[in-house]
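Let's do one together. I've listed all components of the complex below, 469 residues spread over two lines.
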Amino acid sequence: MQISRLLLGVASLCAFSVTHAADVEIQVQNLTHGTYFTPLIVAAHNSSTKLFSVGMPASMSLTKMAEGGDIAGLDADLMAAGANIMKNPAAGLLAPSKSTTTMLTTTGSNTYLSLAAMLLPTNDGFVAANAIQIPTTKGEYVYWLNAYDAGTEANDEKRGSGAVGVAGFPVPPNSPIDTMSGTGGTGITGLTAEGFVHIHRGVLGDDNATGRKSDINNMTQRWLNPVARLVITVK
Amino acid sequence: MNLYHYALLGSACCLLAGCLNDNDNDDDMMGAPAKAKFEVTVTNETAGQPFSPLTIIAHKATAKYWALGEPVSVGLEYVAETGNPTVFRDALKMDNTVYMTKEGKGLLFSGKTESFELELNQSDVSAGARLSLAAMLGKTNDGLVLMSGQKLSELKQGQSMTLHLLSYDAGTELNRETAETLGSAGFNPVRDDVTSALTVHGGVVSKDDGLTNSALTQLEKWDNPVAKVSIKRL
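Okay, and this is what the predicted structure of the assembly comes out as:
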């Protein structure tokens, strides 16, 4: 960083601006054995931006992403902050064990990286990198990402809706989530939304595909952290 | 995130001693290649998951014997489903990317530690030699503990590093947790897992946590990390 600034300083006699760009390659791998990621939002942004704070309530934009996989709100927030954004690099769901790779050109003071996607099936679970400082020395950098709970919806583990304030987890039609998940669960009751973002405690699930409480399969749709591997390659 | 792959350097005095005694790149007077000795110490950090006999591999920097997101070899499938390392080790013996292997004496039970001493050519270490490790999580369908290509060249004499290892699912057998599919009883060449690739393990359910036909109890559950590894350059 220091050296590149210095070189830019020397070159600035003929340069038009002090803004400099960097190309970074971003690889995200779903490490879970049976949990899907909804379309990712990946962004390079400034030091005063972050997607969430653990222990604090989720923003409405984060809520929409965590409950329904809708990244439009986070996209708008990041745009407003002048971020460099890449949406949906996997062109749809990112299946267990699969990776997606994308290039991101960072400009100006966008030296921090964030990403997020909803975990399916969950009520309001998501995977995230939250304002990681992008290394400036050429090389490959590996980060292991955890699963979070947005704290905005009770984890009833029942098929339902991805709309904010509506119970249950969304099931994309004709998706593997549809075929892997159960039906007819009565839902886990006596819960409320936790009210703050935290590390997800995992799902309960059950082994009854057509009844009991949970529509999540306890044998196949479970995870332990970390749920994703992020590789930032600085060119 | 640092939890899984961090390295701690040894104390400052070791570091100094290492510098004073360092003759890494010198062959001795007889012209025999200089050696680099390492002590590898593995601790099972789980509550109730025995590790099958460990296989430790010192190998070339470019070699991999498994990869996250890829199907595993038949040798590693045997390790993951039965704990029997014979097929896996036989394949390694034929593999010219392997400098040497070390084998665990037997099951490594929860809370127990086993140490290994490895002697490598200094030239191989300088060229980027890596250390990998594989064993079955003994009371699972196809669970593994793995260390994947830890670089040795950064260690100076007297220095050590500590890592914590994750649990993995080989992706070769559905996690039914039934008595006839668990542990050493379990090899089946048919791959019927929900994801047919190496991933991080989702953990076991157990009968106590609602998998009716499970032969496991709450004692066999775990969280990551599952093993601690210390590598010391002697």
